[in-house]
Design a protein that fits this description.
Chain lengths: 113, 117
Amino acid sequence: KAGVTQTPRYLIKTRGQQVTLSCSPISGHRSVSWYQQTPGQGLQFLFEYFSETQRNKGNFPGRFSGRQFSNSRSEMNVSTLELGDSALYLCASSLGTGADTQYFGPGTRLTVL
Amino acid sequence: AQSVTQPDIHITVSEGASLELRCNYSYGATPYLFWYVQSPGQGLQLLLKYFSGDTLVQGIKGFEAEFKRSQSSFNLRKPSVHWSDAAEYFCAVGEGPIQAAGNKLTFGGGTRVLVKP
């Protein structure tokens, strides 16, 4: 089975722009979660989508949003980019049934200049 | 709110020596516990997990971890490290098993392992 894929792998943007990151989960997985990883804050949960609905949300500003499509693929969007949004964004997929294991993709490295 | 503490930011170990990484968690119910490993520039790879049952769990790459409820700990061990074990290791606690609660992992700050030849 193919693993979790994320595109693009690297992105460079400037402040004020917006960005969209994509995540394709493992086949059969219905839950997709997003995490932000920075040297200062570590790994932080952004949000989770299950069956096209946001099921859980972390403590991030409204500039961070996401969605999930009927094929379970997910996108996250960051509007009005700030320098502090530079991070590795990781996507994880799971069955979403409760006693779950999350499998992570390779991440998208976002640099904001 | 749940939290995870990994007290050691860096650990240096000689190749062939044993390794133990500490993890302490705070969670009000029975936790779901995980250890992940991250190589530079890569995503997270699952090493092992604990949901219930036997408190000593075996994982990939020769790693094992022991859940101790009384100490709120889930320490990771490997009897003999290889140079390829140099990486960053993350302990995480999940909110389960209720489906409606969703999947949210809370991670510790990580322990970077350096392996000396």
